Amino acid sequence: MRKSVIHILFWTCFFFIWNRIVYFYIDNPLNRLYFTTLDLSLIITAFYIVFSYLMPLYFKRKRLGLFIFSLFVLVIALSALHSFVMWLMLQHNIVPIHFNFYWTYKDLQYNRFFIALLGTLAGCITYLAIDWVRSSKRIERMEKEKSVAELIYLKSQINPHFLFNSLNSLYAQLESGSKETKNTLSALAELLRFQLYECDADRIPVHKEIEYLKNYFTLQSIRKENCEMEFLFGDVPAGLTIAPLLIVPFIENAFKYVSDYDDRPNFIKAALKFDGDTLYFHCTNTMLPVDTSNGYSNKGIGLNNVLKRLQLIYGDQYALTTSVNGDIYIVNLKIRLK
Known about the structure:
This protein has 338 residues and is of the alpha+beta class. The protein has helices spanning 2-21, 29-61, 64-91, 105-156, 160-176, 181-197, 206-223, 248-257, 289-293, 301-314, and strands at residues 204-205, 228-233, 241-242, 267-275, 278-286, 318-325, 328-336.
């Protein structure tokens, strides 16, 4: 119903535009309506035959030669039919002509040919434009579905090496009777609970994401003895939400590729701050020079996934930059959270 109304409105507007622009030189209103109606009937007939039948048939069979031949036959047939009908109407003076006007039958055929050709081309172009829009939407939908599938995978996966190392560290703390055992076990339990239960929604409160990052830092710090680690965050404005697991891939990369120098400092420093509804994330870590040549910034399915998710979820509402300054890798991320 909606499409029918749009079509009717379009052709009504087209009728009046054609009437005023093409036949502006005709003073008699009845003659203008007469010729405009004949022209429009030919254009509409050619348009819908091409749009509703010939173009779908071509896309189904992909036979270009037959398609072009069909268009040619259509234009010739419609122009011949309309020329004959107009000749009969003029011959029998069905609509009196009130201006100096003379056409031979050949002129009439040429005129109808170009009008039919216009309707045919309009049908082709309109169908191609609509098909392009549909294809773009289909591709966008597939990208979103792919992103959702990747997000489900990212949520469900627990890095086996990370879990194995965390359990080994926990066992070592139990053996040594360390007072940090409870904190480690609590952090591991909270991290697993978050990945399994808390991040099923499209958006989660920002403070929950921060708690997850704190627990991640706690567990990773057990394994890094020769590394200074720091995670700072400011007050979180009330009501802010964020897509889950957006920040952790950057921190995970920092821990994965942090340097292990004996003669100089190794560090990982991350900070989150807020300005209104805008989140600013800054992370730096020392790295070995070989990491640069190995494409450090593009490693890991998690990082590739988060880049796609940032684009799909936040569009132009985020800005991400990564850089290397000597042996320090730097990440700056800004997201406007709504």
